[in-house]
Amino acid sequence: MAASLAASVDSLQSSLNLLDSSIDTLDAGISDFPRLSKVLQTTRHFELLPEPTLREAQQSLLDEITPSIAHLLSLASNHVEKLSRREQGLRAKCELQEGRLYSGESRQAPSRPQRSSAFGDRSKAASAAKAAEYRRLVQKKERLQYAVERLELQGKQRERQLRKSMAFQ
User: What's the superkingdom here (predicted)?
Assistant: First the structure.
């Protein structure tokens, strides 16, 4: 019986050694498991949204921003109109001052000794009439240039407003 008991003890010891070896192998195999689980874990970098949700978000953003943009545009257009009216007033004032300056120069022309000949008087009157006509034509030309510039600016402004309104639709 001592021999069978020694054989059982040897067999048990061999099983324990095998079990220790298996535990060491398993420990070596799973010691890296936390790192492997982190590496193998899927990470979402971009979240996919359904198209209706995206459209709703865009519409809510548009609804939120549109009143502010409309208000800012109205403020800007009011300011531009105010500046335009001021510019027109200043141009008109400038033209008036130029007209007064020209008329003041013609009145304050240095007096020369009067010739008694009728020919000299007629030539002076003709040259003065030509000078006055020239000044009138120059002023008319300037007014027309200003009107054309103003109309071009108005056209550009309306074009910009049209583009803005088309962008919101």
Answer: Eukaryota
CB 38 within 8 A of CB 129: no
How many angstroms separate the CA atoms of 105 and 132, rounded?
11
- Angle in degrees, 0-180, between the axes of helices 118-168 and 51-107, rounded to the nearest 10: 170
Please state, in angstroms and rounded to a whole number, the distance separating the CA atoms of residues 34 and 37.
Answer: 5
Q: Rounded to an integer, what distance in angstroms lies between the CA atom of residue 135 and that of residue 127?
A: 12
Residue type at position 140: K
Are 80 and 157 in contact by the 8 Å Cβ rule? The answer is yes
Model-wide pTM > 0.85: no
Residue closest to 98 by CA, chosen among 129, 127, 139, 132: 139
Phi, psi of 50 (to 5 degrees): -70, 150
93, containing H or E segment: helix 51-107
pLDDT digits (tens, 9 = 90+) for 113-149: 454 455 566 777 788 888 888 888 999 898 898 889 8
To which residue do tokens 């069978």 refer?
A: 4
